[in-house]
Amino acid sequence: MSKELSHDVRRNYALVIAAGICFGTTGTTQALGPDGISSLSIGSARLIVGAFFLYLYVKFTKIQSAPVPKLSMWLSAIGILSYQLTFFSAVKQTGVAIGTVTALGSVPALTGLLDYLIYRQKATKRWFIATIITTTGIIILGTANGVADFDLGGFILAIIAGGSFGLLAVSSKRAFTPGVDSTYTMYKVFSLAAVLSIPFLIFNGFNWLGTIDGVAMIIWLGLIPTALAYILYAKGLQGVKPGVASTLILAEPATATILAAVVLNESITLQGWAGIALVTVGLIYLSRETRVV
């Protein structure tokens, strides 16, 4: 393989990891926002504001693109909408540690499984090894402060959230047909998901959007871990298998934990740091793969 191709593959990996770091700011941002807000309301508002920022980016950069395949667009929109609703609900029922570990830890395996079942795409040996390493790290990190009482309903929601993100990864990847711009695809996907989410915002209330703290929170959530993150994710996904991308995205919980310690003064145990280190090792190992997809 030429050095140019190897560089392109690693650049795509770096873009996906950067997206995961952006995603990792979500929890801290919510913690710093107003109290007593419905997680469904935040998820819906995040989709709407994120779609607006993506629209501005597409408009001012004058992106030209062929139409996004409708089936891929709808499946991707359903995936990201389902992820927003089930993930935040799972975290609310099971707690941050178990909900996050179960959802994000299941993403790589479920994405690889969906990609194989739907498109017959086989994962590489390096992906299997990296997924085992990073998933183990996530489990170690998420259980660093002990495990609370098991909640079956919350656990199921977290698994659905992992599968939903996997559906987004697989479907959006397939939307990148010749002439279709990756950022334009995300704009269309999030716009559709935002429209579908409006009833959840109305039903769960949006008075908090009239407060300074509420506005500041939703602008950050819509701009950084949504618009910017998914622009980076989509650009990286163009040259990365969905299963690989879903493993790289595990940079999110490590980032979230570090931010919680630095910004929210939450303590990180030795086991927690060990989990972060293991996730990092897995990401670095996977990023060394130079296979073009």
TrEMBL record:
Record-annotated membrane-spanning stretches: 12-31, 37-58, 70-90, 96-118, 127-146, 152-170, 190-209, 215-233, 245-264, 270-287
Claim: Transmembrane is one of the keywords in the record: yes
Pfam families linked: EamA
InterPro entries membership: EamA_dom (IPR000620), EmrE-like (IPR037185)
Keywords, alphabetical: Membrane, Transmembrane, Transmembrane helix
Name this polypeptide is given: Unannotated protein
UniProt domain EamA: residue ranges: 13-141, 154-287
Originating organism: freshwater metagenome
GO cellular component terms, semicolon-separated: membrane
Presence of keyword Membrane: yes
